[in-house]
């Protein structure tokens, strides 16, 4: 059932090109290069009225939501707040009749996410769910559902669910932009064309995991690792850090690169590994200057750059190159080596990759 792989996690990492392709599936109108979401019951006119969005989820699903926030805000100019479900359910959120809530849950059974959904529904807030499980509680109770078609995810560490959730958020963001008229048809077409090339790019990244494996092996004796990045790179860093903690038990933290000097830089000393993501052109120089700061304190830096950017190699110890795409779509590629890094770090330590200690696949109790 592991299809020849050593673990479900590795199998699921390698299933990502398919999961992402299936999630896009019939939702892309290839002829007109736009997004269609036939599953939405509400009218386009209603959807266009929403002027504020809460995205509520836990763990990796919340991290997908952080990517969703940036893209929805950029493409639609609708303010989006991302909240951890266990916090949100006990808050007194500010709702108006133009507030839309998006809950994201692979399993559709996470207790806190479900409770947040129920609280919102009590206040008559429209809830859209992004979930991977047809017939799950979240799918049944939400007003609207966009399914991710990742197939069953067995490993505790979520991988293909994350990339599929990010795709679902891209599709929703584009659809909302179409409905609100905030992106021109030509802009949507360009993004759609790039989206369609993502599965192939993930596949090409999965072909050669050797460099990541070597870096992961070099972390065998270390007990702390940092991820830094800005903007979307920071959002993905959080996911890389969670994955690493979860299955390799290495203490790690993800920091917005510019925030380091407000405290965390004190922890950087000789040979501390730092994974530095620098894939976003608009803030590239700023990130590089933060990388220079950690290098100056002796950090061993693995940089993530976009293919064609051969400058970063001059600043860091080693570089992993992401296939070129639109900067907004890069997170779905950047996360791949981060998943592999966590996987190989866990394997190098001889741990049970699929069943990390203290954790359950589905957190159905509070
Ligand atoms: O099923 P859900 O998406 O609601 O689960 C949420 C989190 O429990 C889950 O993403 C968790 O963080 C993963 N184990 C991370 O790999």
Textual characterization of the structure:
By secondary structure, the protein is an alpha/beta fold. It has 13 helices and twelve strands. It has helices at residues 8-14, 16-24, 44-49, 59-76, 85-88, 111-122, 137-141, 160-180, 185-207, 210-218, 232-248, 284-296, 331-348, and strands spanning 28-29, 34-35, 52-57, 80-84, 99-105, 126-131, 144-147, 224-229, 251-256, 273-277, 300-306, 318-322. A five-stranded parallel beta sheet has the order 4-3-5-6-7, with helices on both faces. A five-stranded parallel beta sheet has the order 9-8-10-11-12, sandwiched between helices. A two-stranded antiparallel ribbon has the order 1-2. α9 runs parallel beside α13 (331-348) and α11 (232-248) packs parallel to α13 (331-348). The two termini are 31 Å apart. The model has no long low-confidence stretch (mean pLDDT 96). The structure holds 5-amino-5-deoxy-1-O-phosphono-D-mannitol. 5-amino-5-deoxy-1-O-phosphono-D-mannitol is lined by residues 58-61, 105-107, 110, 113, 156-158, 242, 246, 362-363.
- How many helices? The count is 13
What is the end-to-end distance? 31 Å
Strand order of the biggest β-sheet: 4-3-5-6-7
Q: What structural category do the secondary elements indicate?
A: alpha/beta
Count of distinct strands: 12
Amount of beta strand: 15-25%
CA-based shape: globular
Helix content: 40-55%
Bound molecules: 5-amino-5-deoxy-1-O-phosphono-D-mannitol
Mean pLDDT: 96
SSE order in H/E notation? HHEEHEHEHEHEHEHHHEHEEHEEH
Low-confidence stretches: none
- Largest pleated sheet: 5 strands, parallel
Radius of gyration: 20 Å
